[in-house]
Design brief:
Blueprint (H helix, E strand, L loop, with lengths): L2 E5 L2 E4 L4 E8 L8 E6 L6 E6 L6 E3 L7 E6 L4 E6 L8 E7 L4 E2 L3 E6 L1
């Protein structure tokens, strides 16, 4: 049984930073690509970033390129999302996803005030 548990969300002012974490269990974490998605109120869930199983390849949505950084620690079975220069448009629930299969975390709320 795969479990993904996000943490690190919160309330931050525009221009600030947050670091999200997603702890994985139930599978050999280092074998799988991982990703972050987000869903803002009234909008569909959208892709934010992804990282390959080795950490050697990353992909970002255009809206976060240059501001967000995805990374992973395969020893700790954790994937991270460093978010800098946050704007109110980044306000959403952020979800971690194991890219193989339909495995999602419960989400963590990020709210950016203007």
């Amino acid at each position: 049984q795969v479990q993904l548990v996000e943490s690190g969300g919160g309330l931050v002012q525009a221009g600030g930073s947050l670091r999200l974490s997603c702890a994985a269990s139930g599978r050999t974490f280092s074998n799988y690509d991982m990703g972050w998605y987000r869903q803002a109120p009234g909008k569909e869930r959208e892709f934010v970033a992804a990282i390959s199983w080795s950490g050697g390849s990353t992909t970002y949505a255009d809206s976060v390129k240059g501001r967000f950084t995805i990374s992973r620690g395969n020893v700790k079975n954790t994937v991270y999302l460093q978010m800098n220069s946050l704007t109110p448009d980044d306000t959403a629930i952020y979800y971690c996803k194991m890219m193989s299969g339909d495995y999602w975390g419960q989400g963590t709320q990020v709210t950016v005030s203007s």
